Amino acid sequence: MIEASLATQYGIRIRQHPDMPWDEFCNYVAGIMPETPLGAVVAIRAEKDPKAIRAFGPDQRRIHSEWRKRGATRKLDDPVKLDMEMQNFELTMARLFGGGGG
Asked: Is 53 exposed, middle or buried (0-12, 13-18, 19+ CB in 10 A)?
């Protein structure tokens, strides 16, 4: 996807530039627009609007769902971080509903 996106946006065939400095390559990738293959996937993964998500086609839903599952799995891999997030969530809920100090 990176190769296709660089070709689409910049007209660069990355394999024809083996001497391109790493920082230049990173700058190109960082500037990828949503109209490229990689940009489209990033936009789908980042979407938070439930209305927009409901309008996704089957492939978009798959991409979005797989990304969310990956994030959830990573949270489960770090029990200490997960415990801290749960404690923060509990405090937030308690504050919202009249409990908890603060």
From this structure: middle
Q: Which residue range(s) make up the domain with 80?
A: 49-101
Q: Considering only CA atoms, give the Rg of the chain.
A: 20
Could you tell me the pTM of the whole model? 0.59
Report which DSSP code applies to 31. T
Is the same domain home to 42 and 54? no
Contact 38, 30 (CB under 8 A): no
Query: Is residue 65 located within the same domain as residue 80?
Result: yes
**In terms of domains, do 33 and 65 share one?**
no
Q: What is the per-residue pLDDT across 16-50, written as a single tens digit (0 to 9) for each?
A: 999 999 999 999 999 999 899 999 999 998 899 99
Whether the per-residue pLDDT at 102 is higher than 70: the answer is: no
